[in-house]
Design a protein that fits this description.
The protein is an alpha+beta fold. The chain has one domain (about 10-135). It is built from two helices and three strands. The protein has a three-stranded antiparallel β-sheet. A hairpin with an 8-residue loop joins strand 1 (about 100-105) and strand 2. Helix 1 packs antiparallel against helix 2. The radius of gyration is 21 Å and the shape is elongated. The two termini are about 25 Å apart.
Length: about 140
């Protein structure tokens, strides 16, 4: 079933999926930056703690990016929790029914915009979202 573009439920499902992906992206990026930060500390005279200006600047920039990603990850996580709570509320309203929809998602982190077949199911107050990317073939 194709989703209604004016649907509040569609927007909630879309937000849930996008925010979950953003949270994962920022968490991974932060972890990668932390590894890079630690590597730079050890590669550039780690024990001696003597850095030239270029080394210190590079370490500082990576550290600032790491902190920024941590903040973005926290914002995405909090927003994701809000979307999840909205989905749980919808589940209570619909008496834990299952929702099937095709949701169009914008490009995220270099991926192309695409449509996903989504099934939202509810059980014991929880929510489970299963997704499958729909590939469109044009002849």
């Amino acid at each position: 079933m194709t989703a209604n573009p004016n649907s509040g439920i569609e927007k909630t499902i879309k937000d849930y999926i996008e925010l979950q992906e953003m949270f994962r992206l920022y968490a991974k990026k932060r972890l990668d930056l932390e590894k890079e930060y630690n590597k730079l500390l050890t590669d550039h005279n780690g024990e001696a703690k003597n850095y030239n200006l270029e080394q210190a600047d590079k370490i500082y920039k990576v550290y600032c990016e790491m902190i920024s990603c941590e903040k973005q990850s926290k914002i995405a996580s909090d927003s994701f929790q809000e979307a999840e709570n909205k989905l749980k509320e919808i589940g209570r309203i619909l008496y834990e029914a299952t929702i099937h929809a095709e949701i169009s998602l914008p490009a995220i982190n270099g991926t192309e915009a695409h449509t996903r077949s989504v099934m939202v199911s509810y059980s014991n107050g929880g929510v489970h979202v299963r997704e499958q990317i729909i590939l469109h073939t044009f002849i």
